[in-house]
């Protein structure tokens, strides 16, 4: 019986091998047509100086696509939008590089930036207006893509760092921090500190005021959404808003609130240090020195 | 065990190679798509004088079409010029980038900002849809190398490109002047009758490049000699598309071969006064500070936009140029609607003309709809007289006059009295001098 089973097994293997061979030679796949992809690089004839600049400054060094030409499929279809002008897109490309990408280059190394920075930056000329009188300025999707609106409202002559921080940079640092904690977890202790005061989507309800958020130990109303948002809000607020703003938050938070914020900040700080070897103070210093040298950028031409 | 082997054999036999499908076309799908994209690009760039485009923004072409001149260059730029894009000085062009690429079909994209093209898709906080314009268009139909039909991806806008001839090309500014002349001329009529083979088909009301009646609803674009409809209109087997404006007869005559049809401007039986009848000097009577006695002042009514509006100015009372009166060409009447007047001096200062009911003591801060309608006295007692009465838009309170306030931007400063000694004007009548 045993022997019969053994024979049978061999027969099965034989058959298996036979058919595998048959499969291997009989199914001839179509060749992949590599020369005629429908997702093609722009026609070299229509490649502008700016396109070439983007390749050298964004795509090759960082593997980032900066889309200054608006594309429906990349944008939010529920809004009526207008694209960016080329001139404004050039100014933006330079500002983003200087005040965001290169900050991480300096402090954490270009390999770090290249690996974790969102892959697509999409520039939109107009705002995305909602019927409730609000306007969308910047959105981020899953750490992959960042969309910046109202690019055409930027005037190189008068642009200030605080305008860029309020409209875009805060969001961009915020989103980058999401990518970091999604890659390496921060300590579980963080979420427990304010656990009782996370309110999910209620963070924007009228009853959850900014003053209340501060007193409960949050740096913004949005921080109350959940622990991850709280975590990245602390990071972004600390880095882009400066010490004076931070002190003001602590003052408004009162003794108890400030204590909680500081406790959480220390976790953010030590996480960045141990997980990424990033000194958050250095990051802020670097950002601030770049804000100070922002006026040296030539925003009007390549 | 045999069973297992059989099953195994069955499985492999069944799974093994399905017959390869033959390619229906000689080249792969992506190759064909690329070829199409290249062909469309070639087509767009080939006319040396570009295209005369007819563009219908807004969902369901609700506001009619506009003429635009587009020139696509091989370097990837497009130059646009449109009759109504008011964010650029009249008759000027703007250049931007365009792309032709493949999605489910070939797409034409106006991919960077063009002040002319994106005039129609620029949103704002007060108008989140802008003019519901598109910026990516699907190629629908190439009628001939001289005519391409495209459709907007997001809003379904219609864009038709017709080749501007190589020889004797149409000059944009000359064409736009022609369009403007016709648009200004026909504004005299608020009502049209459609006659096909001398039979009245429908009576239509004109509004913003549309004419709507009981059974017919057409949208159109002004051309340099008349109008072209959004799509062919078919009545009793007669197909109409192009019409020529004949100012002498007040008719749009169909120019399509073998067709006897026209739209004819007319005035309804209740029609009050022609636009020209309002122009001139009038005596205004009103209750100002006193409700018991009437004040008088001499006012001038002049053309603001012919057949559409007037300016009522009164040097005795206000230093600003005047209050706008709206002309209704369907009824031959004028209205005084709540409005905002930009002050000449003082930058952000502006005057608000609000609808006011002295009997109730309330006024409405609405701008643009609540106000007064002028009623003509049919020249009774030998004088041309207009009395202003509630247009009944407010409803809550009766409107019997206006009230003037001075604002800086959107902040109330004070009542605006001018030289009248009061900011309220009620029970207004105008008597032609």
Notable traits:
heterodimer, A: 302 residues, alpha/beta, two-stranded antiparallel sheet, 9 helices, B: 433 residues, Lipocalin, elongated
| Structural class based on helices, strands and sheet pairing of chain A | alpha/beta
User: Taking strands numbered 1, 2, ... along the chain, how are they ordered across the largest sheet of chain B?
Assistant: 1-2-3-4-5-6-7-8
> Could you name the ranges of chain B where pLDDT drops below 50 across 5 or more consecutive residues?
none
Number of domains of chain B: 3
- Give the overall pLDDT of chain B as a whole number: 90
Helix count, DSSP H or I runs of 4 or more residues of chain A: 9
* Main CATH class of chain A: Alpha Beta
Shape of chain A: globular
Could you explain the architecture of this structure?
The complex is a heterodimer of chains A (302) and B (433). With 302 residues, chain A is α/β, with parallel strands linked by helices. Chain A contains 9 helices and 6 strands, in the order H-H-E-H-H-E-E-E-E-E-H-H-H-H-H. In chain A, helix 2 (49-62) runs parallel beside helix 3 (86-108) and helix 8 (227-276) crosses helix 9 (280-292). The longest helix of chain A has 50 residues, at 227-276. Chain A is globular and about 80 Å long. Chain B is mainly beta. Chain B has 3 domains: 29-163, Lipocalin; 172-266; 275-432, no CATH class. The chains are: A alpha/beta (302), B mainly beta (433). The interface between A and B is large, with 50 and 46 residues.
């Amino acid at each position: 019986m045993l022997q019969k089973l053994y024979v049978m097994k061999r027969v099965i293997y034989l058959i298996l091998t036979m058919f595998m061979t048959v499969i291997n030679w009989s199914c001839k796949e179509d060749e992949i047509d590599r020369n005629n992809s429908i997702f093609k690089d722009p026609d070299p004839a229509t490649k502008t100086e700016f396109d070439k600049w983007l390749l050298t400054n964004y795509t090759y060094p960082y593997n980032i696509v900066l889309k200054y030409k608006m594309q429906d499929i990349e944008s939010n279809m529920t809004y009526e939008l207008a694209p960016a002008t080329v001139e404004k897109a050039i100014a933006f490309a330079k500002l983003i590089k200087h005040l965001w990408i290169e900050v991480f280059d300096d402090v954490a190394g270009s390999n770090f930036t290249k690996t974790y920075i969102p892959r697509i930056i999409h520039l939109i000329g107009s705002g995305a207006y909602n019927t409730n009188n609000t306007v969308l300025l910047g959105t981020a999707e899953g750490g992959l893509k960042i969309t910046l609106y109202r690019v055409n409202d930027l005037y190189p002559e008068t642009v200030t760092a605080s305008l860029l921080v309020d409209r875009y940079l805060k969001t961009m640092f915020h989103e980058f921090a999401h990518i970091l904690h999604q890659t390496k977890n921060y300590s579980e202790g963080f979420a427990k500190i304010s656990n009782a005061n996370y309110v999910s989507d209620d963070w924007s309800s009228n009853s959850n005021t900014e003053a209340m958020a501060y007193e409960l130990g949050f740096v913004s109303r949005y921080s109350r959404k959940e622990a991850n948002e709280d975590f990245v809000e602390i990071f972004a607020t600390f880095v882009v808003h400066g010490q004076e703003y931070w002190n003001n938050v602590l003052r408004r938070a009162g003794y108890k609130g400030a204590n909680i914020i500081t406790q959480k900040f220390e976790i953010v700080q030590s996480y960045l240090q141990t997980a990424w070897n990033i000194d958050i103070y250095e990051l802020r210093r670097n950002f601030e020195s770049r804000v100070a040298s922002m006026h040296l950028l030539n925003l009007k031409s390549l | 065990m045999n069973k297992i082997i059989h099953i195994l054999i069955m499985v492999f036999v069944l799974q093994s190679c399905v017959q390869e499908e033959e390619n229906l076309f000689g080249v792969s799908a992506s190759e064909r798509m690329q070829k199409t994209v290249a062909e469309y690009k070639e087509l767009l760039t080939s006319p040396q004088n570009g295209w005369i485009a007819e563009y219908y923004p807004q969902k369901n072409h609700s506001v009619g079409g506009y003429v635009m001149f587009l020139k696509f260059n091989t370097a990837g730029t497009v130059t646009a010029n449109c009759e109504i894009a008011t964010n650029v000085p009249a008759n000027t062009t703007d250049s931007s980038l365009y792309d032709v690429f493949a999605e489910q079909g070939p797409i034409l994209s106006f991919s960077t900002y063009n002040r002319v093209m994106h005039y129609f898709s620029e949103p704002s906080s007060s108008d989140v849809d802008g003019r519901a314009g598109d910026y990516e268009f699907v190629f629908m139909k190439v009628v001939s190398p001289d005519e391409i039909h495209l459709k907007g991806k997001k809003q379904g806008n219609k864009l038709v490109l017709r080749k501007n001839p190589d020889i004797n090309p149409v000059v944009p500014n000359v064409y736009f002047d022609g369009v403007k002349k016709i648009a200004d001329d026909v504004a005299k009529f608020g009502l049209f009758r459609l006659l096909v083979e001398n039979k009245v088909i429908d009576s239509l009301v004109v509004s913003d490049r549309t004419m709507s009646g009981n059974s017919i609803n057409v949208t159109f674009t002004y051309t340099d000699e008349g109008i072209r409809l959004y799509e062919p209109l078919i009545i009793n087997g007669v197909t109409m598309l192009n019409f020529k404006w004949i100012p002498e007869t007040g008719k749009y005559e169909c120019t399509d071969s073998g067709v006897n049809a026209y739209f004819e401007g007319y005035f309804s039986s209740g029609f009050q006064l022609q636009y020209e009848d309002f122009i001139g000097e009038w005596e205004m009577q009103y209750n100002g500070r006193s409700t018991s006695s009437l004040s008088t002042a001499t006012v001038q009514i002049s053309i603001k936009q012919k057949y559409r509006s007037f300016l009522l100015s009164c040097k005795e009372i206000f230093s600003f140029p005047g209050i706008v009166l709206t002309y209704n060409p369907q009824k031959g009447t004028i209205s005084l609607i709540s409005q905002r007047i930009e002050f000449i001096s003082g930058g952000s200062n502006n005057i608000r003309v609000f609808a006011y009911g002295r009997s109730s003591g309330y006024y409405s801060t609405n701008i643009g709809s609540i106000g007064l309608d002028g009623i003509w006295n049919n020249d009774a007692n030998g004088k041309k007289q207009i009395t202003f009465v509630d247009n009944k838009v407010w409803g809550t309170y009766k409107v019997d006059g206006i009230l003037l306030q001075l604002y800086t931007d959107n902040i109330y400063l004070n009542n605006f009295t001018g030289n009248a000694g009061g900011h309220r004007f009620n029970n207004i009548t105008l008597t032609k001098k």
